[in-house]
User: Fold these one by one.
Assistant:
Number 1:
Amino acid sequence: GQVTVFAAASMKTALEDVAADWQRQSGHKATLSFAGSSALARQIEAGAPADLYLSANSGWMDRLEEQGLLRSGSRSDLLGNQLVLVGPAGTAPQPLDSTLIDALEGGHLAMALVEAVPAGIYGKAALEYLGLWTDIAPHVAQADNVRAALALVAIGEAPLGIVYATDAQAEPRVDVVAEFPAPSHPPITYPVAILTDSKADTVQAFLDYLKGPVAKKIFLRHGFTEPPQHK
Amino acid sequence: MNLSVSIQHRFAGFTLDASFETPNGVTALFGSSGSGKTTLVNAIAGLLRPDQARVQIGDRLLCDSDQGLCLPPHKRRIGYVFQEGRLFPHLTVRQNLRYGSWVSGRQRDQAGETRVVDMLGIGDLLDRRPGALSGGEKQRVAIGRALLSQPLLLLMDEPLAALDEARKAEILPYLERLRDETDIPILYVSHSVAEVARLATTVVLLGKGKMLKCGPTAQVMSDPALAPAIGLREAGSVLTATVTAHHADGLTELAAAGGQVFLPRIGVPAGGTVRLRIHANDVMLSLGRPGRISALNVLPGKVTSIRSGGGPGAMVQLKAGHDQILARVTKRSATLLGLEPGSEVFAIIKSVSVAQADIGARNQSMAKSDTTT
Amino acid sequence: MNLSVSIQHRFAGFTLDASFETPNGVTALFGSSGSGKTTLVNAIAGLLRPDQARVQIGDRLLCDSDQGLCLPPHKRRIGYVFQEGRLFPHLTVRQNLRYGSWVSGRQRDQAGETRVVDMLGIGDLLDRRPGALSGGEKQRVAIGRALLSQPLLLLMDEPLAALDEARKAEILPYLERLRDETDIPILYVSHSVAEVARLATTVVLLGKGKMLKCGPTAQVMSDPALAPAIGLREAGSVLTATVTAHHADGLTELAAAGGQVFLPRIGVPAGGTVRLRIHANDVMLSLGRPGRISALNVLPGKVTSIRSGGGPGAMVQLKAGHDQILARVTKRSATLLGLEPGSEVFAIIKSVSVAQADIGARNQSMAKSDTTT
Amino acid sequence: MDFLSPEEWTAVALSLRVAIWATLVALPLAIWVAFLLARRDFWGKQLLNGIVHLPLILPPVVTGYLLLLTFGRRAPVGAWLADTLGLVFAFRWTGAALAAGIMGFPLMVRAIRLALETVDPKLEQAAATLGAPRIWVFLTVTLPLILPGIIAGAILGFAKAMGEFGATITFVSNIPGQTQTLPSAIYAFLQVPGGEASALRLVAVSVVIAMAALIGSETLARRATKRVMGA
Amino acid sequence: MDFLSPEEWTAVALSLRVAIWATLVALPLAIWVAFLLARRDFWGKQLLNGIVHLPLILPPVVTGYLLLLTFGRRAPVGAWLADTLGLVFAFRWTGAALAAGIMGFPLMVRAIRLALETVDPKLEQAAATLGAPRIWVFLTVTLPLILPGIIAGAILGFAKAMGEFGATITFVSNIPGQTQTLPSAIYAFLQVPGGEASALRLVAVSVVIAMAALIGSETLARRATKRVMGA
Ligand SMILES: Nc1ncnc2c1ncn2[C@@H]1O[C@H](COP(=O)(O)OP(=O)(O)OP(=O)(O)O)[C@@H](O)[C@H]1O
Ligand SMILES: Nc1ncnc2c1ncn2[C@@H]1O[C@H](COP(=O)(O)OP(=O)(O)OP(=O)(O)O)[C@@H](O)[C@H]1O
Ligand code: MOO
Ligand SMILES: [Mg+2]
Ligand SMILES: [Mg+2]
């Protein structure tokens, strides 16, 4: 009756809380394996014994879907998130305009990889939308994932960084100095799906629980939002 | 079992080309530093793959380039005492000694081991590792290790060079016994003429990679032409004599072709045959039979040749019975005595100067193989 | 410059405790395998840090445990020829030879280098690496390397053991010249009595880590009590003689205390003093002056003692002039000749038996330092 | 023990198991390959040498990915091994051991090869003249003489196995109790804002284990060296 | 060249520069440390030994994080170096070289140390009796004799530097043209669905470079060994 969940690493704290709660409710255990969305997707392609895939990136989910690795009809957008600009705690609010580059004071803007990691892709899109990208691109330090970018700001190595609201909320050493408007970037979604090979009888129950109100409350508490409606 | 060797090999700047066939017993490989002795011995052991080679012990063919046959070293059953020890540093002395029987799965010969250990005086070293042994101690262990591997041929590359006289004197008889009591041929590299004369049945003289001479020890040693190659001081002759009696005062009486000879007692029973080595330097010549002197051995003979070079000395060859005796005297003496071929003289040899270390005992079978070559 | 050494050191199972002081020239370190020769030499070179040590060359104190002084090896300026070569495998022979002057930034002595290379016969090897040299070739390079490091003391641990007679005979005179023409003391480990007798001013006899005897060569060598330690065959006496004339037939005439002596020509001018070594085995005794024999050297003398052990031989000590001569004869001869202390005899010594290799030339300063010890 | 959660203890135990197996299984193979590279001449030697070094040259993620493509359940080699030998690597601790072993392999081979190259062939010749066939020469002379090198190789392999992360998480994911090694657990903590303290605890455990192994190996190696050098 | 984009060529050049500097600068230090560990006895030797091995034991991300905490602009050491020597590591290629050097350090030290331990002290003694002071003995005897070990250490360090990813990206991020090494670029491609082919191209470049270095080093090492072994 055990469910194995492959989930994007950035969901660790929230998902662990949810799984613990589910175990308390149902008596069933969910085994959570956290890694980058890409690594997990490749592992699923290679036949990983996962029941549920929770990605931070709809691109990888699309690819699995194309290959018929998802149980049909099980895919849905579970959560949404918001993109924010953060600075070390105490940093004054920063308008998202051409003063941004001065605010770096010669330092770097921390982001996730802008071509590869979702948070970086969204961030680059937003900056392009705001017309700031060309100027600021040489000053961007790209980390291998969004949490690493957050850490750069948290320890003060980068004066500013672009991360998810969920990350900003969890890290006391940073303050949100600006929020990116929703239209400035593609919608941020966390898709979820059951995998074709899944044999666990409780997988549907767990997915239902994830979509249910109790889990949603926990997710929202961690800063996630309802999934964006337009898809 | 005789040993037949034919080896050609080229290094940059050095060519070895030597063929010889030797009867059973000890074959001395003699030659100056760099003349190719170690190279030759390595080729026989299979450690060096020569350009062209044929090596045969008795009827065991070890290697024949023409047939494309070349046994690997471990199948040759050759005990090799290296010029530089080559003890296994990670094994104790005891384990080094037992290595041969261990790796070949042979029954260990405990009695033989005890005998060899005693003979070599390494009983106290058995539990030590080779690293902290003295130079001579290492070499003694190396000799023991080779002896205990039950070889069919023993190669010894200057095995005694690092040892003192007393230790040499202790080990030499054991090598003699090995020669006399077993059928194992020994190829023995040495710079010491005394050792060679004592041990060797046959001498192979190498010079710059070429074989200069191969023959019975007596013949090579008393060849005046080879004296420079061997070393003037070391030239001499080798006689064969039969033991006639052992006297109470510790002397042994022998009959040589040229007459009666006395020696300090030797361990050969009456009737046995021995070889006596006489340094040319140790022979004095007298025109009349000398009177009251301490030398007991006086052999009458006839001068066959006198060779003198640029130095003050002359090498006089005598015939005493059918034996050749070499005597090295000054030109002045030769002149004073009026020596010339045909002169009748007496060779005076101090009995003790035919010293223990120069006596080689031979058993009958060897005497035979010696004369047939 | 004299050498003063006092060293105590313990290994598990072996204790070295030796103190000696030797005059300038060559000091031979003599003793059986495992008696501590290498250990002693290592301690002098500073390679082993002994428990207790004091080493002084002339007035240069190298090491004194009491003062807590201990110079590191590279500051001692000691040339060391090791028992096992220790050539640098990554350098050519030439680079090995020049290593000493290179690392110490000294001016290289090109003439000296050429001379040493010629003397050692290693001219053809200069561009080779040590890996493929023969055993004797390696040792010759090692000797050259030590000589060319311009040392203040030379330590030689069996330097000639791997060499053939001819090569030894070539190198020995150079060591003699080193001894005679320079002020460099040499500590020479050897198992060869002939080498020791020829080279050494002083002999230090070691046994099981203890110093048994230290004294002038002549004295140690002709001490009948030490004959067993030195080896019976090698016992003998050392005489001092003055060159009186060089004759046209290649002989040199000398005056010893006991009379006139002839030798093959030696390179010492008339008036010079030389040391002659006479093997006890090479001396024959005669009651009357012998007649027409080839031996040119007949010294009258008087028997001072006769020592005979369990064997068939007897050691007869004579006084010829004020020199001691040892003669080893058979008991039978001693009885036949009726020898006893006080007997007047003639010692017959073949001139050539006082051979080239046993002649040691000494210059005046050495003769002096010799007599003062 | 309160210091670590049960799940973390599991990760510690798993890491140890993975590292020990990786080292023990890879070692004989490494000795063999080192021997080939040091002593034999054959066609393709440089190729073998290159392949051995690959895990060092490639980013670990790539190695993990290649492993996934080779030893995954759907991959030819993986399927064949599973069918014939019943040996499954994918998403098992065995896979973690495989990844760790492969990542440490070049280190082991180099250390052993270096030791092999300094063994004096004259000693091996001496053994041969005493009647030892090649394999015996190797076992009784060569092997004991290169023991310090083997120990060095083993400890390098073990340390690498304890620290290996990229290839492991890419190949066998990060499934608690099955494939979650210490480094994976540490990584997961670092993905959580404020997870540094938890990560540090695990780092400490990892360091203590590796240091113990290190000191043990030093002692062994010193003993082996002393035996060889004399006294 | 069409095979790689200009940006990718930049990454290749940067990786080469990083690997070469990392190897060259770390090598003398590695020789010194190897010498201390092999030949000297001092208090804290085991500690030094442990520290040297740390980069091997720790997951690379942790190493990168520790580097950030030590050599970052805000970190004490980093600030001091920047102020006094003008040496800045954070977000510079120099930082990538530092990370690569540190990750390869244990491999270098081990190889060199292993070689040092097999040098016959008797040869060093002989050099001393010929008048060579310690440092000369080291330079003229020890160093040439351990050359094969030094070459092995250098090539291991170089290979590792070419492949290092985790510590580098964590420490200096991924700034195209400044800190984007080949492994970072490869990683980025692997994060995107369908990026495998591009990643493979870069892997090929990386492998070719490393193989060339490998074969070069083998040739050098063989020559060095031959010199030492004779002929
Ligand atoms: N490091 C060591 N530890 C223990 N014992 C040692 C050590 N080095 C030498 N010995 C022992 O000390 C004794 C003297 O050794 P040393 O090498 O000085 O002898 P030696 O007189 O030079 O002999 P040889 O003529 O055989 O070279 C030997 O018994 C040897 O085994
Ligand atoms: N691997 C090699 N390459 C080139 N030359 C070599 C090689 N091995 C030996 N030689 C040369 O071959 C000659 C014969 O060497 P070998 O070792 O056989 O001499 P040896 O008679 O044993 O001398 P020694 O009495 O000095 O030990 C020497 O000149 C030596 O330098
Ligand atoms: O799958 Mo991620 O680690 O949130 O980009
Ligand atoms: Mg030789
Ligand atoms: Mg010695």
Number 2:
Amino acid sequence: MELKLSPAEQAFAADVRTFIRDNLPPDIAGRVRRGEHLGKDDHMRWQQILGRHGWHAFTWPQEHGGPGWSVVQRYLFEVISAEMDCPIIQPFGPRMAGPVIYTFGTPEQKERFLPGIRQSTVWWCQGYSEPQSGSDLASLATRADDAGDHYVVNGQKIWTSYAHHADWMFCLVRTAREERPQQGISFLLIDMTSPGITVKPILMLEGTHSFNAVFFDNVRVPKNNRIGEEGRGWTYAKFLLEHERVDNAAIGVTKQALSQVKAIAAAERDGDTPLIDDPLFQAKLIAVEAQLMSLEMAALRVLSQVASGASPGPVSSLLKIRGTEVAQRISELGMEATAYYALPYQPGLIAGQSNEEPIGPDYAVTAANNYFWRRCMSIYGGSNEIQRNIIAKAMLGL
Amino acid sequence: MELKLSPAEQAFAADVRTFIRDNLPPDIAGRVRRGEHLGKDDHMRWQQILGRHGWHAFTWPQEHGGPGWSVVQRYLFEVISAEMDCPIIQPFGPRMAGPVIYTFGTPEQKERFLPGIRQSTVWWCQGYSEPQSGSDLASLATRADDAGDHYVVNGQKIWTSYAHHADWMFCLVRTAREERPQQGISFLLIDMTSPGITVKPILMLEGTHSFNAVFFDNVRVPKNNRIGEEGRGWTYAKFLLEHERVDNAAIGVTKQALSQVKAIAAAERDGDTPLIDDPLFQAKLIAVEAQLMSLEMAALRVLSQVASGASPGPVSSLLKIRGTEVAQRISELGMEATAYYALPYQPGLIAGQSNEEPIGPDYAVTAANNYFWRRCMSIYGGSNEIQRNIIAKAMLGL
Amino acid sequence: MDLEYSTEQSLLRDSVERFVRDDYAFQARQKILANGGFSAPHWTTFAELGWLGIPFAEEDGGFGGSAVDLAVIMEGVGRGLVLEPFLPTIMAGGLIAAAASSAQKQAWLTPLIAGECKLAVAFAEPQSRYDLADCTTRAAATGAGWRLEGRKCVVVGGKIADAFIVVARTSGDRRDRTGLSLFLVPADADGLTVRRYDTNDGQGAADLELAGVALGPDALLGPDGAALDPLERAVDGATAAVAAEAVGAMAALCDATLAYLKVRKQFGKPLGSNQALQHRMVDMVIALEEARSAALAASLSMTEDDAAARSRAISLAKIEIGRTATKVGQEAVQLHGAMGVTDELDVGHYFKRLTIIATSFGNADWHIRRVAALDAATRRSAPEQPAPGRTAA
Amino acid sequence: MDLEYSTEQSLLRDSVERFVRDDYAFQARQKILANGGFSAPHWTTFAELGWLGIPFAEEDGGFGGSAVDLAVIMEGVGRGLVLEPFLPTIMAGGLIAAAASSAQKQAWLTPLIAGECKLAVAFAEPQSRYDLADCTTRAAATGAGWRLEGRKCVVVGGKIADAFIVVARTSGDRRDRTGLSLFLVPADADGLTVRRYDTNDGQGAADLELAGVALGPDALLGPDGAALDPLERAVDGATAAVAAEAVGAMAALCDATLAYLKVRKQFGKPLGSNQALQHRMVDMVIALEEARSAALAASLSMTEDDAAARSRAISLAKIEIGRTATKVGQEAVQLHGAMGVTDELDVGHYFKRLTIIATSFGNADWHIRRVAALDAATRRSAPEQPAPGRTAA
């Protein structure tokens, strides 16, 4: 057992650092560092740079055009990317649509869709949640009626992240009513430019726009855009959910967030004392760092098991729960560090679309915003309550 | 609205202080202050002193021989008693058996049992819990079979506090099997010297003896020892439980416990700094004091409502939950304050039955013990989980 | 001891609740927010209902109410997420009532009570965090009065205040406890730049740049150099007031969450049938009751003559308010699921206001330090209490 | 990077688990406790299985194992609530291995590995709390060797130790980081009074009174006055070891609680069908996994060359162990209801041991302060990191 990196792993890490240093546009890095709400262009520019280098679909095996990295390499790539202020790679294409397509898709589907994901020329979104089926995903009601060579889709999705940027959606629809709600669900790929699709923004509590409601009014979807068999969509969706939870631990991003809060606390003065030397604030920072260290080790242990061929299983729920809680806690400390400067609300600066002067210190502009925004982490991707149900049932047999 | 005491209340408080100062035996006060496990004699001596003064049954109305105090007076008496290191008055007679007897008993029962409770010449215990009915009290199985002028009782009670000291038990037994488990329960008063009763000690995790198992093997109980109607015992038991929960907030004792932990923290040195000046320990003390201040105000609000004739209702569950949690937290800080001196285990000193030298500082002898013991507070009197169920159902309609 | 509302207090509570219910439903509130966070008709209503005069003495034209009366209104302010700068104005009025000459009262307090002017207190500075004595803004006596130089920040209510009470130093150094004075500064004073801005909780605030602001001799409020005590009292009073406001907001969140748990269905049954969520709802309600008790303790402590005892009680209460506001706010959002993190539901707005309350007038850490400092001072002046050991018996 | 057990480690784990299962069931353990907390046959078994030699170099007669190997054993020690002073002896052996001459090794380490002597390290003093440098026990050089005066307290394992490694000051003042030395002191040395006593967790301890204890020159272990570094390393190693022990105890509590929830019926259904209890059981399991990760991080950090980095990782891990041990212990007791607070069930005994672990080798507050001090030293020596603001972009 050995925590240290092997020479090959060290060389890999050095490569990643060099590539990012030479290729990450400084304006994008600045926006990430300041915690601004990134635009579509910011994401696409960086993802296409990675795509041209073969690193956008960095979790993919070589046979599908990925780099075929080991779990340790993937981990290093994520942590270094976060450390160096890269935008998070949007998961909808390379982490979600991609693996489903290359695992369950037809050769034609692979040929048609995988290159755009690898190159990040196409923005994908995820059509899962519906107004009446929050955590109870299987109760979805969006209907796809058989019309010969195509389906006619009617219904509504909600909480669809970045649907307003998206070219394509992978989507769960009901093609039949069966006894168990999990049956009769199919997995469709839908062109977002199809007639009959309306995207309406849902503003978040802190004022930004990430989520949407998507309405389907007699939308025609060719049957060859269906993944796998009709009625077996739940299987493909479940395959994804487990992988998503491991990702949700998001160790790299959280470590970077902690460094930033430490930097804020070093800059803030309480009287003549830097806040980071205030015993109580310091204690909270150290307590959360201790928890983050455990979490990182837990994630590495899971990766190590995955590398030996085991499925992550319900432990991924555990990482999702704690990963989101720790990230939220860090954002809370960041807000607390700014004292009264948590109050000013400067949406133009938060969106990076204004040159106005910050009211308080630079780092305070997004501090409260970031805290508010992160409350959604324990809700999305299957709420933390649902994750606890999963652990109770699948892992503990309760 | 006014928090300050009226002149009459101030005069009352002064009376209480004077009486305790003049009458509390110093050896007993010392044992209370040191957190030792008190013996029967300690309790009885003090309770009989109070009884002779008419203050043992201090919550009783004058018509039953109590002092007829207002809720504020009762509260002051409890807080001052705790502050001055009086033993806690054992509730089984004056707070439990007494009110049930004077509310539901016959004139003969009142005449027979109330004087011994007022004078504290008789030790009572509570026969509720059974091995298969923990928090689910109504599922009790101890049977009382009708045998003409008496019942024949068979079965087992458990967690019976101080049954080994007790002269009498008030006891729930099953006199009939009905559809709802709450039906068919009767409330009996049982002479603990009756043939067929066996009391077996259950040692607590910290080594002291408070709890017992009580076995009934064909115990004869005269029918005129039954309270109220046959089969309606559940009604009388429920009447008690609500009152018990308000008592369980135990503000006075908890405030005194906090003072003692502060005194320990002032005496402990970390390097040259008293522990009470250590920012982290201090912060924990202040945080729990803030919570205790809220709790006291909440208890006063409930008392104020009770004084205006309202029933405490489910709010008493809330006081029980938080009152026990706060008391546990304070005991945890007391243990933490003693660092390595939490380790030595000196049962003779804890029981006040030894003159050996304490290994560490005096105050460390009972510190860990006290923490261990107090874990039972969130379990007894209806576990805090059951209290949450009660609030959810009765107060929130969930 | 008596912890029941008087008849007058019950009537006041009813009138506040009626206003919030009838005139301050969430949609109406959002409209006011979109219009800059202030409704002139509402302000007139506040004056007409007497709210703006509640805490002031009858001889000053007020109603001689107590901190508990103010808390009754503030609980409604919290329940309705009221945006108008009620508390900043009352807080400024309190300083005027405590320190001003009768001419100054006539000039400022009378119109304030009549609803004709809105004030705000400028105490914080960019470097000060929560330390009221950490003041670098300076006021120098000139022949004709005073001249102010410096910067004040995050003046809540400052977005629409007609005038400010500015804390400035007439002597001493940054963080000295003496040498602070209060000045009445009209928003349109020469040399004063007011940067008005929105805040995360919708209340609106301003930063002030004072570049040689020239004021007459009557701008000085109270004795020169002795402002810290009344300022601490005013901030303690405002802390008790936001504690009550937080109770109102938490009560609204508990109601909303409980209703949602009963109505929203998942997996074919109401969310509220999940015992895990029931227990969390119970913990929210317990926190609300603790907050209510803490807020009451805070208001009642404002009659305390001993400033140290008052500040200690206020700090303990604020620690509790911080803890409970954070817990109730976070849990209400979480139990509402995705709806809870949207702008369109009121839940997120309550959450944001509670977050800001927790961080205002000192966060929990700051109040812990204040209690610790007060206790250390007490220990130094009092004989040591014996530890509860054998030898002390 | 590689986080899988080696084949040898898997075998070791199996052998430890077998011993605990077959020879250390709770009733057997209680019998050992009643007999003074030590079973000579078990000690022989430890020696035969090689556990007493695990962390020592092969040239010293050990097996050259790592901190991870030791952790594998300690997890079993925790699962079985093993009473014999395994860790105190190993910890003392580590100091000998690190500092002793080859003659001293022959005299002490060889019999230790063979199971012929039990040692304990006497570092704490009545006033020291967790500060290893806070040492007032003095050792003065005499013509014939050394003379020790002072008092050591709560020497875990001291109840049945054959000899002690005593930390004493050969120069400097209380709390100086230099001037500490290590001495081998047989339990029957003249002038040494050993007060042996039971502890709340059953491990047994002793206080030492050293009244002019005269020792030969070969009693000094390692260089005069330079003991703090190896002592800190030994305590860090012991901290990693009790972290693993805590994991074993927490795992046992999780297993017991889960089994109880499945078996115990209330209101006509298993306790475990209550969702509120399910979620709390899940939180216990999450805490266990966090503890397991923290303990692993601690063991792996023992190969770290930089003492500050090692200590920092150990402290972070101990903070986590403290938090999780408290949580799992308290919750296991609570979910067992009244059974959980009795002496007859194993749950209370695990809880007590976990409580003591949380308070041993520094509690959470102490380790937070240690990390803070290490970080402050780093900040002083490193250029300031820019805050993540606009201007720094």
